[in-house]
Amino acid sequence: MTRRQRVAQSAAMIAIFTLISKGLGFIREVFIASRYGSGVETDTYFVAMTATTIIMGTLGSALNTTLIPIFSEIRGKRGRRQQKIYLNNVLNIVILLTIIMAILAYIFSPIIIKILAKGFEGDQFDAAVRLNRIGLPIVVFLGITYVFSGYLQSNQVFGPHAIMGIPYNFVFLIYLLFLAKGGDITNLMVVSVIAASTQFLIQLPAVRHSGYRYSLSFDLRDPYLSKAMILVLPVLLGSAVRQINVVIDKTLASELVDGSISALTYSSRINEMIIAVFVMAITTVVFPMLSKAFSEGDTTQVRKIFNEGVNIILLITVPATIGIMLLAEPVVRIFFERNAFDELATAMTSSALFYYSVGLIGSSLRLMLNKVFYSFQDTKTPMVNGTIAVVLNVVLNLLFIRFMGHNGLALATSISAIFTSALLIVDLRKKMGPIGMKGILITFAKTLVAATIMGLIVYIIFFKLGALIISNKLVELIFLLLSIGIGVAVYFGLCILLRVKEVSRFFKFNR
Q1: Reduced DSSP (H G I as helix, E B as strand, rest coil) percent helix, strand, coil of the chain, to 5
Q2: Looking at the structure, do residues 275 and 159 belong to the same domain, yes or no?
Q3: Which of 24, 231, 303, 454 has the most CB atoms around it within 10 Å of its CB?
Q4: What pLDDT band is residue 292 in, cutting at 50, 70 and 90?
């Protein structure tokens, strides 16, 4: 199997299982709401879960990002045996650190809850502290999960990482369907701990199959440990900066009309779904390949992998951008507008979604470009770029919010993503020399032409023909799905006619 076939196959597998996992996660939330309602108990549970996972989520992401290139380098220079020794070393240190973090979080849980939920008092505050303490083993489980995931992905084993969200959600669904009777929310936190354990347990067979056997030992003098610390700090700072950005957006939105924060939240989740399902799948597969090529000093291969990854992202995000801009209002109305979600909420959410979609390509490319720099073991450039993005976003927020309201915050985020992606491309070209921009621009032009024609056909089918036929929301949903399906078929057909290489290879067409 060629590299291109492996990339396409692995990315498709990850995208499919991510989509399944996202669907199960949505069903999980529906059942939680059904069993426990939406009130004091669920508020307490969600705050306690946030307190449990917020630090480890940031640290774990940084850990996974820095481990993959180091694992790749060790395998390339010192072999598989040394790679397994380093895995054992890192695993033991992470377990020790996460146990210490869990103990400290147990002690300072009241302070953590007070920071996250200022309004919690009395029994609710005590319940949040109790739930937070029950959930603290999740911190250790997440640490192990990220280490295993980094090791397997560095060896281009993507299956366990792709499916680990499925058993996680199944644990919840089994409990909620057959065992939960409502009432005490404590049991749900216990189930959360059990579910979190499945994420590393599902990866364990693949880790053992690679020949790894656990040993209770570690070497603090390992030079790769100090290297990991140097690489991980900028990633942590960059993650912290992004969290500050989110806080600023929410703070500014809180000063606008009621519903602004909700509109931004719902619209950003719809926009991010494409990134989570498709773009993350591509970058997850490409990142270890880039790391391996860099560790071998093969810059030609790095350029080829980078170009293929970017072209596939363009193939997905260009039509997605046009599709979201065109169908934002009917999508929000059909799937969200009911009960308390009224016409005003639909209008606010769909307009925010329109402006978020402006930056979909930029956000996706930034994710890919960051992975390229991480594969070079350069974590400083993305950190600096992330800081610039926050500063620019704040300036644009203050400028646009005056005359665009919450839509200005969405547009500021999009422009910031586009601008910082352009800066990363400039930085990458300085680092690598020519990166094949001509080929990338040709692919962009071809996909834009195909997506524009697709958009016109979808507009005619849904807004013109549909206006004559649609009589209720069910018919509108059917017509929406039909127009999207026809649009997708037209788009890929045009891409084949325009000889977009990635589509031709996927469908096994010869140029």
Answers
A1: 85, 0, 15
A2: no
A3: 454
A4: low
Same domain, residue pair 288 and 404:
yes
Contact predicate 453/494, CB 8 Å: yes
> Strand, coil or helix: what is 402?
helix
Q: What is the pLDDT of residues 83-107, one digit of tens each?
A: 888 888 888 888 888 899 889 989 9
Q: 380 and 441, same structural domain? A: no
| pLDDT, tens digit (0-9, with 9 covering 90-100), for 341-389 | 577 778 888 888 899 888 888 888 888 888 788 777 677 788 788 888 8
Note whether 334 and 476 are within 8 A (CB). Answer: yes
Residue 176 lies in a domain: yes
- Rounded alpha-carbon distances, angstroms, from residue 309 to 92, 205, 302, 315, 379: 34, 29, 11, 10, 20
φ, ψ at 96 (rounded to 5°): -60, -45
Enter the tokens of residue 384: 């600096």
Residue ranges of alpha helices (H) inside 79-136 are 80-107, 109-116, 122-134
Cβ atoms of 68 and 235 within 8 Å: the answer is no
**HSE value, Cβ hemisphere, 13 Å, CA-based, for 436:** 17
Pick the closest to residue 49 from 205, 167, 190 (CA basis): 190
Residue 231 covered by a domain: no
Q: How far is CA 497 from CA 63, 244, 327, 442, in A?
A: 43, 46, 26, 14
3-state secondary structure 252-274: HHHCCCCCHHHHHHHHHHHHHHH
Average pLDDT, the chain: 78
pTM tops 0.85, yes or no: no
Dihedral sign, Cα of residue 55, residue 57, residue 60, residue 65? negative
Please state, in angstroms and rounded to a whole number, the distance separating the CA atoms of residues 153 and 160.
9
Give the chain's domain count.
3
Q: What's the pLDDT tens digit per position in 101-154?
A: 889 989 988 888 777 666 677 887 888 888 889 988 998 998 898 888 888 887
In a domain, 229, yes or no: no
Please give the span between the terminal C-alpha atoms of the chain, in angstroms, as a whole number: 19
Parent domain of 366: 236-434
In this structure, which amino acid lies at residue 346? T
In the predicted structure, residue 510 carries a pLDDT above the cut 50: no
Residue 493 lies in a domain: yes
